[in-house]
Write a structure and sequence with these properties.
Blueprint: E1 5-10, E2 13-18, H1 29-44, E3 50-55, E4 59-61, H2 66-69, H3 77-96, E5 101-105, E6 108-110, H4 112-119, E7 122-126, E8 130-132, H5 146-153, H6 155-164, E9 168-169, H7 170-176, E10 181-183, H8 188-200, H9 204-216, H10 222-237, H11 240-250
Parallel strand pairs: 2-3, 3-5, 4-6, 5-7, 6-8, 7-10
Antiparallel strand pairs: 1-2, 8-9
Helix pairs in contact: 1-3, 5-6, 9-10
Length: 260
């Protein structure tokens, strides 16, 4: 049986690799469920400070599984809705994580695959990668991933790529704000790991509090955002890690983080 997701921990980095290259790592129900479980395991493990998400083979993720799409008319609406919960839960899990997620986009990222790219906090992409929301060509619209894409690149650009189904290169994805860095194919993992190692050397508590603020203030009005941020600021200043960081700076040494 194929191990749909490979997971290893290396230097405080939880490396998650989608591993179904024959289907271009498509987001089947089983793939979504396995990714959710793996992401939750990485978030719950104190040894993991940063998560890195990539795809096995020549593709990052081709989005929905077309074989599953072709059988939908044979099913009841309630069954289709139930099966779709896995995809929805995957994106809810990704966008709610309190640990940084680094995307290493080694190849094509289409449909839901582009949604994964948008949901990552920082993304390195291969110069050979192609991205797009191609659902319109299948008689669909990228509904579940649309809110995430709007948040990342704005409503007009999100609607434009959804309307056209355009497949664009990584350089254009960087221009849109979907990708942070574009490198030659052979450098994708090295660049992504280098950034992940840099983040993993920071205070895990600072990262967690920062992402707590990022995630939980999304739907607040401005004054509530500022009040929430100020509360987290108090927690930060009372932490052992801030004390350690200040002492290490004054003593000209590397800090030893406690994560509390």
């Amino acid at each position: 049986m194929v191990e749909l997701v490979r997971y290893q921990i290396e230097n405080n980095i939880g490396i998650i690799e989608m591993n179904n290259p024959e289907s271009r790592n498509s987001l089947s129900q089983d793939m979504c469920i396995t990714l959710i479980d793996t992401l939750k395991a990485a978030e719950a493990n104190d040894e993991v400070h940063v998560i890195l998400l990539t795809g096995g083979g020549s593709s990052f993720c081709a989005g929905g599984n077309l074989k599953e799409f072709s059988r939908y008319q044979e099913k009841l609406a309630s069954v289709i809705h139930k099966e779709g919960e896995a995809t929805t839960k995957l994106f809810q899990t990704l966008t709610g994580l309190k640990k940084p997620v680094i995307g290493a986009v080694n190849g094509h990222a289409l449909g839901g695959g582009l949604g994964l790219v948008a949901a990552c906090h920082y993304t390195v992409a291969s110069s050979n990668a192609k991205l797009g929301t191609t659902e319109i060509k299948l008689g669909l619209f990228p509904l579940v991933i649309l809110p995430i894409i709007i948040e990342v690149i704005g409503s007009k650009k999100a609607l434009e790529i959804s309307f056209t189904g355009e497949i664009f290169k990584a350089d254009k994805a960087k221009e849109y704000g979907l990708v942070n860095k574009v490198v030659p194919p052979e450098q994708v993992m090295d660049e992504a790991l280098a950034f992940a190692r840099m983040l993993a050397s920071a205070s895990p508590l600072a990262l967690k509090i920062g992402l707590d603020c990022f995630v939980n203030t999304r739907d607040m009005e401005m004054n509530k955002k500022l009040d929430y941020a100020n509360t987290l600021r108090v927690i930060s200043f009372l932490s052992d890690d801030v004390k350690e960081g200040a002492e290490a700076f004054l003593e000209k040494r590397q800090p030893v983080w406690k994560g509390r």
